[in-house]
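Budget justification note: compute hours in this period were largely spent on complex prediction jobs such as the one shown. Inputs:
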Amino acid sequence: MKDLAGIGSPKDGGIWRLAFTDADLEARTFVEGCLRETGAEIRIDPLGNLFGIVETGRPGPVVMSGSHTDTVADGGRFDGSLGVMAAIEAADAISSGKGCGTFIAVDFVNEEGVRFMPDMMGSLFFTGRLEIGEVRSIRDAAGTSIGEELNRLGYAGTDSMSDLRPDFFIELHIEQGPILETTDHTIGVVTGVQGLKWFEITCSGTSNHAGTTPMQNRRDAVRAASRLMDHLHQLPDEMDGVRLTVGSVHARPNLINVIAERCVFTVDVRHPNPEVLSDAERHIRARVRAAEAESGCDISIRALADAEPVEFDRRVVEAVARTADESGFPARRMISGAGHDAQILNSVCPSGMIFIPSRGGISHSPDEFSTDDDLVAGANVLLGSILALMDG
Ligand SMILES: [Zn+2]
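Corresponding output:
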């Protein structure tokens, strides 16, 4: 993990391994070298996803595990890397005689989606939800396409994985939240990933002089927006487990002495249960209509994104829970607040995840940190869970 953290880390600080850059390729090449040492057969697909295959020679299922080695800008050393390095350790243990069936360690490309959208691109491609032609034509902000970067770097391979589809997928990852640390648990048994909906709300009023326009004659877009925001922020108090964030606000003309004619803000709302999430959306839309009637401004709402909650497979969840229990690690069941490759894999095979604590709940930052003891505990629970699935 320390060697991997040195790649794409030019100065003392964060890691810069944005997808399809030189540093990203250097990290994947490092992972490939580690996998070769375990005796795994290496395959690289046309988008650059890296696979290390270990055949045990005994009949059994195909179990896949891994994560990603790309990072956000100025990212941390554990997000993604932990799941890949722990899968390499598992490959090593399995090639020295453990388990039945086939094990595949994987390093998926572009999980973060910072430079090229969408995120979780490698797993979306692997599961057949993206075509190579459309992916190669995706461009970054500077106009460079993925196809151009794949060609420049020699990043892509020609291997197919169509003969080796996983029966199970399991991913070890840092929590990226504070729950395990604050409740003194070492292992998070992840039962699912919460869903999310994004909205953009536009309040339109009339621009006028801040000093001469009587208060009762105003159609003030910012006042309408702030009252609506206040009502929306009350939603989590009324609906258990709902997380709601207004993260972006823009006023026009955005001047100190002018009543704003327009105020646009975003809403991010999340919950693990699809019915509660739909219910939250109904409440949001009702509050928008009420605010429009009350404020005299025109208020519109536009949906920007809609990701269904994911429920992980019981067999994988129970394998993790049992392994953690047998290993004597304090474990708790929990929902992932962030998105991961495992939720994409869950659409093609039973999948699950294991979390370990993140100090202060911090991630996507140079301050991201997990202790050596927790890293080792996570890797051991991962190996135990993989073997439990392989041995049926
Ligand atoms: Zn990650």
